[in-house]
Amino acid sequence: MECKQATVAVHSGLNIDEQYGCVVPPVYLSSTYNFTDFNTPREHDYSRRGNPGRDIVQQVLSELEGGSGAVMTSSGMSAIHLLCTVFLKPGDLLVAPHDCYGGSYRLFDSLSKRGAYNVIFIDQADENALKLALAQKPKLVLIETPSNPLLRIVDIQRICDLAHEVGALAIVDNTFLSPVLQKPLDLGADIVVHSCTKYLNGHSDLIAGAIIAKDPAIAADLAWWANNIGVTGGAFDSYLLLRGIRTLSARVLLQQSNAAAIVEYLQQQPQVKKLYYPALENHPGHKIAVKQQKGFGAMLSFELDGDEQTIRRFLSALKLFTLAESLGGVESLISHTATMTHAGMSAEARAQAGITDLLLRVSVGIEDSQDLIADLDNAFQAAVTR
């Protein structure tokens, strides 16, 4: 019986325990497993290479994204690093978005300076810049849509097609939307990457990453290298991630509903100079988002009209929005991009990406939307108080 995503997320791994009949799979904390005889290992021999709990969560991630195999890693950044380790060598080229996640930017920039590989950061919505970059025959093209933090949208299918024409693999970071709202493999991507810390787990109590591949051979290669360099996820993290995935659909849809209410409120606020959310018809890429996404998600950004003191007063007055990095948890978070998530980028790089010092990024949680709006309203009033 072929089930929908929400059902797959809930039922994967249930009722497989034959010893005690546990409905929920147990946590397999053993680091090692005995051999049944000389030179006769079991399915698992050492937990860095394979763990029964990690097997389950990798299977459900693969099913949710429509892939042929998945690898759970110790963090989202170790997933990104694993991809570069496997597919890039000195002299190879990576094409990345100029406004990608700050951690990804920092990794690519620092390793390229050490000669590990070459990187070009471009505005992938700029057709000319994209074609010029692809003409240099990159090995990997990383796509991040919606982008972090400006929610820029690019056409996944078109960029994947262009990447394949020059022999490159197309990788999509699907962290912001999750497989509930976007399926990059169905749009032509070869690989999907996630920071599972965010929506997939959803409770801000876990650091993990994942890579899902369309080609089983690529999935197997990634699994071999993940074990080789030791970036696989741990047993308890696997348990927590699977528990979080159980409620993925319910959480994401409620968060998205709350975000829509907050965006409607923010549109009426004179102190909001710019508002970034793909559901808005004047948002760049809105039509593409409608075509390739099942929804607009729960991430939004806005620029305040003011200065640093305005930002300080606004943030200090918030009670329900926590000033913190990360995103995708059940609680609402707000971050000042320039000094937090993208502090690793130079001021010049941030300016080129359109990230100003007055930009705030919001991850909307599952609280009551009217309470969240009231909290924002109080902060806006405090921000104009001299």
From TrEMBL:
Q: Which CDD domains match?
A: CGS_like
Q: Which domain of life is it from?
A: Bacteria
EC number(s) reported in the record:
2.5.1.48
Q: Which Pfam families match?
A: Cys_Met_Meta_PP
InterPro entries xrefs: Cys/Met-Metab_PyrdxlP-dep_enz, Cys_met_metab_PP, O_succ_thio_ly, PyrdxlP-dep_Trfase, PyrdxlP-dep_Trfase_major, PyrdxlP-dep_Trfase_small
Q: What class of enzyme is it?
A: transferase
- Per its Swiss-Prot or TrEMBL entry, what cofactor is needed? pyridoxal 5'-phosphate
Instruction: Report the Gene3D superfamilies cross-referenced here.
Output: Aspartate Aminotransferase, domain 1, Type I PLP-dependent aspartate aminotransferase-like (Major domain)
Q: Which GO terms describe its molecular function?
A: cystathionine gamma-synthase activity
Which keywords fit this entry according to its UniProt record? Answer: Pyridoxal phosphate, Transferase
- Give the UniProt family note: Belongs to the trans-sulfuration enzymes family.
Task: Tell me the PANTHER family matching this sequence.
Answer: CYSTATHIONINE GAMMA-SYNTHASE (PTHR11808:SF75), TRANS-SULFURATION ENZYME FAMILY MEMBER (PTHR11808)
Q: What is this protein called?
A: Cystathionine gamma-synthase
Organism listed in the record: Xenorhabdus santafensis
